[in-house]
Amino acid sequence: MPTTIYVDGDACPVREEVYKVSDRLGLPVFVVSNGSRPIRPTGRPLVRLITVEAGADVADDWIAEHITHTDVCVTSDIPLASRCLAKSARALAPNGKVWTADNIGNALAGRAVAQHMREIGLPTGGPAPLTKQDRSRFLSALDSAIQAAKRG
Questions:
Q1: What is the domain count for the chain?
Q2: CATH no. for residue 96?
């Protein structure tokens, strides 16, 4: 079974990097979005844009339904990363952080705490902008994840 890269497409800052890796390795890519931020077609034959209906977690549900143990998901969404890991797929964030069984639990707990803080009106800040180092770390992590996925 060939490795496929799934991209949580809404607000993903590393789509171009994924496309270049896809071109280089001949891997199919699904960029899944709810259409709230239209994504321009790439013209690349291995990249398919999937637009799902609007709604909370609809794109995540599509990815979680289709991903397999030989695939890689690129997402900033910690619950989606957890769902991918539960299917034995690889998951990594755009900053190059690799999600694993060892770190996903703490990340989910931290997310819950931050959500609670927002609900009670405390500022939590957002993600830091990606740096060149983050993009480099992402490309390295993506290559490693793809090789691990290919080995099964």
A1: 1
A2: 3.40.50
Please tell me what DSSP assigns to residue 57.
T
User: pLDDT digit of tens for each residue in the chain (152 aa)?
Assistant: 789 999 999 779 999 999 999 999 999 999 999 877 778 888 999 999 999 998 889 999 999 999 999 999 999 999 999 999 999 999 999 999 999 988 887 776 776 676 766 778 777 777 788 999 999 999 999 999 999 998 87
CA gap 24, 79 in Å, rounded: 30
pTM for the whole thing?
A: 0.87
| Residues spanned by the domain of 53 | 5-151
CA distance 90 to 71: 6
3-state class (DSSP) for residue 45: coil
- Phi/psi-derived region of residue 140, left when phi > 0, alpha when psi is between -120 and 50, beta in every other case: alpha
